[in-house]
Amino acid sequence: MSFTSNVPFDVLQFAKTLTKLEYGDPTVLDMINQNYQNLGRAYRIGVTGPPGAGKSSLVTMMAKHYREEGVRVGIIAVDPSSPFSGGALLGDRIRMQQLGADENIFIRSMASRGAMGGLAEYADAAADLFDLYGFDVILLETVGVGQSELEIAQCADTTVVVIVPQSGDVIQGMKAGLMEIGDLFVMNKSDDPFSEKATQQLKSAIHLKEWGEWTPPIINTVATENRGIDRLIHQLNAHHSFLIQTGALEQRRQQRLVRRIKQMVTEKVERELWNKTREIKLLQAIQERRQPQHILEEIYQDFRGSFYVGNESESN
Amino acid sequence: MSEMKVNPIDSSAVPQSIRDEDQNHLHEIEKYQKAKQKWEDDLKKSKDRGGYYYSVSSSPIDILGLPETPPKHFLEKIGFPGQYPYTRGIHPNMYRGKLWTMRQFSGFGTPEETNERYHYLLQNGQTGLSVAFDLPTLMGRDSDDPWSTGEVGKCGVAVSSLRDMEVLMHGIDQGNVTTSMTINSPSFILWAFYIAAGEKKGTHRSQMGGTLQNDILKEFIAQKEFIFPVRPSIKLVVDTIEFATKEMPKWNSISISGYHIREAGSTAAQELAFTLADGFAYIEAALDRGLDIDDFAPRLSHFFNSHIDFFEEIAKFRAARRIYARIMREEYHAKKERSWMLRFHTQTAGCSLTAQQPENNIVRTAFEALAAVLGGTQSLHTNSMDETLALPSEKAVTIALRTQQIIAHEIGVAHTIDPLGGSWYVEQLTDKIEAEAYEYFRKIKELGGNRGFLPGVIAGIESGFFQREIAQAAYLHQQELDRKDRIIVGVNDYVDPDEKIDIPILKITEEAELRQKEILKKLRSERDNRKVEQCLAQLKESCENNTNVMYPVLECAHAMVTLGEMMNVMKSVYGEYIEDSVF
Amino acid sequence: MERKIRILIAKPGLDGHDRGAKVMAAACRDAGMEVIYTGLRQTPEMIVNAAIQEDVDIVALSILSGAHMTLFPAVLKLMKEKGLNDVLLTGGGIIPEEDMKALEALGVGKLFGPGTNTQEAIEYMKNWVSKHRTYKVV
Ligand SMILES: Nc1nc2c(ncn2[C@@H]2O[C@H](COP(=O)(O)OP(=O)(O)O)[C@@H](O)[C@H]2O)c(=O)[nH]1
Ligand SMILES: [Mg+2]
Question: What local confidence, expressed as pLDDT, does residue B19 receive?
């Protein structure tokens, strides 16, 4: 399959492909793999921050803005799954519905599913799919609360951290590690009387850190009134150019690939290591009350040995 | 066990405190006697409606039950009817002076059809009108707006212009009949239509009486029929309060509503707390406008739900009066007694009715109506048995009205004031609900940085606090039903599997929509459209300059500017609200 | 990995009474579904557009205003036009029985009136999905 041709975009098929990808369908993974050379056209922007900060509102306004420039926009919005039922309430669309039924905006809500390890991978691959299908800008909204969400944010070329002027928010953000990952900081809800003070706090917090060539700017916005969005887009463009000119974009993408391939290798090794035979061996050894250290050595040697003997027994 | 250390020589400590208590008690009894005397004097001065106050056994009925010796804190907590804190009612003689107003909410189809229904209801002993508008009207849209398709005349009457209002009120003396209008976001416009319609018939606006149900806060909290963002919405409500205060002394400028909060699934305490908090928020906004509390507070009214849990509801109504009086006097320093009195309309709970075995709804409604009367309501709407199926039929509406008449005239409960007052259980429950409400007040104020109710309520809405509390209560209730922890007859128990519903259902045809569209088309072509443009420009200017919109809106009404046209101009200034959904 | 049922819950038209929609959304979440909630006042176009993009199994509408005979057919028609042939359109509200029958004849799924046990509705939806949705997770 080639994506450079003018095959008309089939929205139904694309939506179904995303679902398949979400469940790790090998045909879709393979397709992404085959088209690896075509990846990297789209600009990927991560938007993260505490719940209620206005991420969805901002993403909506950013999408509006990009649409006015004639750019195709893909949005992936992740909300947490319920740890009890595995179900989820995905409400990010409520704000985004005002974008109407524009065929050049595609919004996909996603539950974090509790499969924490896999989420970042999926989001990354989903972004690849948007990229392959010709979306120019991909906006990735995640709640910045946990480790895995921070990882998702790193799937992006540029990470926007959204904070609001509620007392303690800046400090909370620092604790949650948000300060580490921001390329741009948005002080949303700048219609709040406290916003000036909070912006100052944020500025000091940012200046506590060594940043290298790019010091993250702070942009004050009022997402609900579409205020400050131009400046945000302007800064995003600046960061994008910076990334391209300094080669950082390429570097980031390489790092992303390094992480992803490492992860994949680890997973593959793990799958091969813990085949049925070894699982049973392990259990038996434990039941025989043998020393853990001995069991470890034995299994490890067995695993290593399998490489020399040949791998017929391991894979097929 | 620790040893008690008592000094045998010092005997003064204990006896002294007892003596103090005795003293206090004597003092209290004295105050009690005085209050009682005042009540008796007030009673003599009050007009009696001349009812027949004898039991069915022909023995005279006491007007009020009183304790032999007053318990502690009697005056602060219970008191006498017509006296602060009004726990037992706001009038010294309650329903012996005047029965509650029987006010059935109704409207459907075209203004012509509804006008006919009104004449029928008034002939059948209903004592006030209550207009139900259709959804497009409630949402500020004309009948010919694309969004109105399929909804015109469905849940109420369609009114898009002064012309429609004139038809609706045709042959009804607006100086005599009081009218309640349930209309939220565009309330000031429909009210202007009503005023203009009356004035064209020669009734001066100062003679018109009624209630404007334009509590927009509960829309954000519960019913979700909002249009503008929160702050301009509050501003518009204050405009109506100001206008009523200055021009329409007989009009209740706002009806602060808990009904819809309850229908959305809240608990009794939430209904009470959120509604009162909303009311206090309006009061603070009106004070900010520079109005004097004693000028407008006497014309504020409330609107509660009477749900199926009998005693809880009665306790809620009693607690409502007590809390309101206390806060009005102590926090807002109102001086007039009338400013302290919480007057309220009640509607029985639509959400307690069932689509299954609908005749049972008559019984449910009767109990709920009884609770409202025992709780001291000023007016009452009783639901029709078929309301969960469709618009009520004439027969169902009549039964609902008859239910009120039976309560008023047959079962004797209206002859005695607050007959449950002094019941250990009911007093205890009243205290409990009151305490729960105060706990919510604390939370609400805290959300707004402890700067009063107004910032608290706004913050509570914008952060989804109210919505979340209600959604959780509603979900909990549904789970109780799903598990059959709570039984609803005919729904999750005592189900009739072969049930055939043979209640005649009133259906609104699409004809109403077509008729309305035609009328609007004609109206738009026949009116002076230059005048229309001028009036709309004035309205826009008023919105931009933050002046009271009632005056330009009245001008627009007379120039036959439609509801939708006015709302569009206002939307261009204020913007529109999008709600977050919280669960 | 078991595939989660995805459901879009929407309120079309002007009606804002969202008690039922929210209770149902919470119940579906607790039954392990992924619920996409679009909020109030959605046009049929907005609803169907969201249903496509989210690749949902079910579209559920809550209508209490009496406009069901206009709104259900409008959504259904658009769904068919856009090729959503394997998606269930269901919902609830104050809908007289004869209207329910008329809508079912058009191809709308079972509709749920007041007093419905949420578990019953969920059972129905789960059954429908297991019978009609073809995509299986490998
Ligand atoms: N006052 C104000 N409210 C905002 C602003 N941006 C978003 N909001 C509100 O904040 C709430 C949460 O917004 P949302 O975009 O859903 O936040 P998210 O949870 O971060 O995606 C909503 O009620 C928005 O209306 C803003 O700039 N100013
Ligand atoms: Mg969001």
Answer: 65
Residue B352 C-alpha, separation from nearest chain C C-alpha, in angstroms:
10
> Looking at chain B, which residue has its C-alpha nearest residue A92?
B580
pLDDT tens digits for A269-299? Answer: 888 899 898 999 999 999 999 999 999 999 9
* C37·A84 Cβ contact <8 A: no
Q: Give the nearest ligand 1 atom to A225 CA.
A: 27
Q: Which residues of B81-108 are buried (b: 16+ CB within 10 A; e: fewer)?
A: bbbbbbbbbbbbbbbbeebbbbbbbbbb
Chain B to chain C Cβ contacts (< 8 Å)? 102
Q: Taking CB atoms and an 8 Å cutoff, what residues of chain C touch B141?
A: 14
Mean pLDDT for the stretch of residues B77-106: 94
β-bridge pairing B251-252 and B210-213 = parallel
The CATH code of domain C2-137 reads 3.40.50.280
Cβ–Cβ of A89/B583 closer than 8 Å?
Answer: yes
- For chain C, the structural domain boundaries read 2-137
Give C112-120 contacts, CB < 8 A, sequence gap 24+.
Answer: C113/B355, C114/B354, C114/B355, C114/B388, C115/B354, C115/B355, C115/B356, C115/B488, C115/B491, C115/B492, C116/C92, C117/B481, C117/B482, C117/B492, C118/B478, C118/B482, C118/C23, C118/C24, C118/C27, C119/B482, C119/C27, C119/C31
Cis peptide before B85 (omega within 30 of 0): yes
The protein residue whose alpha carbon is closest to atom 3 in ligand 1 is A189
Domain, as residue range, for B463: 94-482
| Domain containing residue B445: CATH number | 3.20.20.240
> What average pLDDT does the segment A8-13 reach?
90
Do A286 and A244 belong together in one domain? Answer: no
Ligand 1 neighbour A188 (Cβ under 6 A): yes
The interface predicted TM-score (ipTM) is 0.93
Task: State whether the beta carbon of A57 lies less than 6 angstroms from ligand 1.
Answer: yes
Write out pLDDT tens, residues C6-64.
Answer: 999 999 989 888 999 999 999 999 999 999 999 899 999 999 999 999 999 999 999 98
pLDDT of residue C46: 94
Protein residue with least CA distance to atom 17, ligand 1: A54
Chain A contact residues (CB < 8 Å to B):
52, 89, 91, 94-95, 98, 225
Q: Mean pLDDT: which of A180-194, B317-331, B386-400 is highest?
A: B317-331
Please check whether residues A111 and A18 belong to one and the same domain: yes
Q: pLDDT for B338-384, tens place per residue?
A: 999 999 999 999 999 999 999 999 999 999 999 999 999 999 999 99
Residues of A in contact with B575 (CB under 8 A): 225
**C-alpha A53 to ligand 1 mean position (Å):** 6
Query: How confident is the model at residue A49, as a pLDDT?
Result: 87
- Say yes or no: A87 and A214 in one domain: yes
Measured CA to CA, the distance from residue B400 to residue B381 in angstroms comes to: 8
**Does any ligand 1 atom lie closer than 6 A to the CB of residue A52?**
yes
> Which residues of chain B are within 8 Å of residue C113 when distances are taken between CB atoms?
355
Q: Is the CB of A95 under 6 A from ligand 1?
A: yes
Q: Which domain holds residue A76?
A: 11-262
Residue in this structure with the two tokens 């894979």, named with its chain if needed: A315
Q: Are residues A107 and A134 in the same domain?
A: yes
Q: Which of A20, A86, A100 minimises the CB distance to C32? A: A86
* CB of A222 shorter than 6 A to ligand 1: yes
User: Percent of chain B, pLDDT > 70?
Assistant: 95
- In the three-class reduction of DSSP (H, G, I as helix; E, B as strand; rest coil), residue B242 is classed as helix
CA dist list (Å): B397 to A114, B118, B124, B346, B354: 53, 12, 11, 16, 16
Measuring from atom 26 of ligand 1, which residue has the nearest CA?
A189
Contact A88 C37 (CB under 8 A): no
pTM score, two decimals? 0.87
pLDDT tens for residues B159-178?
Answer: 999 999 999 999 999 999 99
- Report the number of distinct structural domains present in chain A: 2
